[in-house]
Amino acid sequence: MLVILQGSLRHFPPEQLLSFLAQHRHSGTLDVEMKGRRARLFFRDGFVVWGESPEGNDVVAIVASLFDQEAAFTFLDGVELPANAAEKPHPIDAILEEAQRRIVIAQTLPDEARFHVVDAPAGQEISLKPEQFKLLFRIGSGRTFGELMAEGGATREELAAAIRTLEASGLLLRIDSGAQRPAAAPPEAAPQPAPAPEPAATEKTGPAKKRAGALTSAGTDAAVHPLVGNAYTIGREPGNDIVVPDASVSSRHARISRTPDGFAIEDLGSRNGTFVNGEPVKQAVALADNDMVRLGKIVFTFNLAAELKAGETTATNLGHS
Length: 321
Known about the structure:
The protein is an alpha+beta fold. It is built from 8 helices and 18 strands. About 25% of the residues lie in helices and about 25% in strands. A hairpin with a 2-residue loop joins strand 12 and strand 13. Helix 2 crosses helix 3 and helix 3 crosses helix 6. It starts with a strand and ends in a 17-residue tail after the last strand.
């Protein structure tokens, strides 16, 4: 393939370069080297038909990543798509518009941004994909946005968009770096002879903060079952909330219920028993983070997300930037 055009994105900004290739209906391959990473966009008659980068094939994410790089580019006259490529024409104007939107979203989340995981809003049923629930627990462990970025797996724009989706669902609250917290209250309350009744009174007058949980199955599939409701039955038959199609699991094997302190599991008269950390469940047993739960021969790990602590505030409303 012949080199048609090459240069630096610092002198030929991405928006101008891509618009130029589209306007003149060029066909070829745009190869970009940026800080040890390589991305490619494939053009046919001025349309982007495929993209490649270490993070995947999202052409919008690839274009968005070009705006924050001092990168060198080369445009070649040939188009040799990978064998697995599903060619689809994307107009440059639409790609640039969506890329700019994602950049704006990402810029509203600085590296120091932190979040707290809360339960779903009352009366709203939320369905999460496994990758969303895993992100929810990574955030719940106290990681900042920058720390999540450092772990890799997604671009800044992709991570910000995923967090915004969880925030709009009511499962996340952002704790702004400048948020004021009543930190002086705990030291005053500590020397008081009876500090315990005050939290009890607060719980009666205000809604309790709930925590989300999850059961993650062992094995290569590692299926994640979110626990954001009040009760879940587990068993072999389809009528259960969590279906485990294994002969060692009874038709209605166990139930996990939300309690004021978290979650508890009880056996429903199963044939092969329910165990928590190797101990048989004879009556309802409270579950702690990282407990091993076994139903028959099937093993799960129970996890508990962080909750919004009393007294903490946020300047960001749910669903709003």
